[in-house]
Specification:
This protein has 298 residues and is of the alpha+beta class. Helix content is 64%, strand content 17%. Strands 1, 2, 3, 4, 5, 6 and 7 form a 7-stranded antiparallel β-sheet that branches. It is rod-shaped.
Length: 298
């Protein structure tokens, strides 16, 4: 019960820094541009990057026209902007982008003709078009922010999944190593049994032939028997050497098995921890994916 409770608490920790989606609203205001106050609309762009948003805004204003945005003291102006969503003809646009607390504020004044600005009092249709235009722009930027976060969280999830796959592969390698060691131990024990029989047989033959040599007269027969005894001693030495080699291989295999067994225990703990991280990351990704969906439906 304590383990489940601890995991439940831990699973909540990653969500502490996750911000919920914020609404996008467009309002009418009076904007001071230079020394003059002019009618304008203002829209908030949550969580957006200032430099990136500014670049996109300027690009949109300059799209479809040879005119360029002029900037002075953070005030932007463009004459002859081609914004078909607002007006079929070219219009002048005056704007400011201000960075606030986790949100950007874009204030825009649309001048349809000389001193004729879009405002609610002058016409609901033009005002609604301008309002929708700014809301869509803000939505697009907010969507990009949310999408970038979803992509980042997906990458985190894939990285953790790769960690788990690597741990699983390592455990499989360790298990195969233990199986190989067990086979080695079995084979070397069989070899030791065979070589022990060889040592026993050869030792008995050496004793028997040594006994016969002592009663033989010098001559070719005795020399041949002495030579044979030396061959037996070589066989015995080879068998003893093979036994020693097998014993060393068995000891190494057992040590390797002990280490692999210990490593598997550690691996199992790491796998469990990694699986919990995957569950947490899946929940985080799910939350950011939901946030992106909500923003897209604004």
């Amino acid at each position: 019960m304590k383990t489940i409770y601890a995991f439940a608490i831990l699973s909540l920790i990653p969500f502490a820094g996750i911000k919920g989606q914020k609404p996008i609203s467009v309002s009418e205001e009076s904007m001071k541009f230079g020394k003059t106050n002019i009618p304008a609309l203002s829209v908030n762009i949550p969580e957006a990057n200032y430099e990136k948003t500014l670049k996109v805004w300027i690009k949109q204003l300059e799209s479809g026209t040879k005119s360029n945005v002029a900037t002075e003291n953070n005030e932007m102006s463009i004459f002859g902007a081609n914004l078909k969503d607002i007006s079929p003809g070219p219009i002048n646009v005056y704007s400011k982008l201000i960075s606030g607390d986790s949100t950007l504020q874009l204030s825009v004044s649309f001048e349809l003709s000389k001193d004729k600005y879009i405002e609610k009092a002058s016409g609901e249709t033009d005002y609604s078009k301008a309002q929708n235009f700014l809301k869509q722009f803000a939505k697009n930027q907010y969507t990009e922010v949310a999408k970038d976060r979803v992509d980042a969280e997906e990458k985190k999830l894939k990285d953790i999944q790769k960690e788990l796959a690597s741990l699983e592969k390592e455990k499989s390698r360790l298990q195969k190593s233990i199986q190989s060691n067990n086979t080695t131990i079995l084979n070397e024990n069989d070899n030791i049994a065979i070589q022990n029989n060889e040592v026993k047989t050869v030792s008995a033959s050496i004793v028997d032939n040594n006994s016969q040599v002592t009663s033989m007269d010098n001559g070719p027969a005795k020399d041949e028997r002495v030579k044979y005894i030396k061959e037996l001693e070589k066989r015995k030495k080879k068998a003893l050497s093979s036994i020693e080699s097998s014993e060393n291989k068995i000891n190494n295999a057992k040590n390797d098995t002990d280490k692999a067994t210990s490593d598997i225990s550690k691996n199992d703990l790491m796998q469990e921890s990694t699986r919990q991280r995957i569950i947490q990351q899946e929940l985080i990704l799910q939350k950011f994916t939901h946030k992106l969906t909500v923003i897209k439906n604004y």
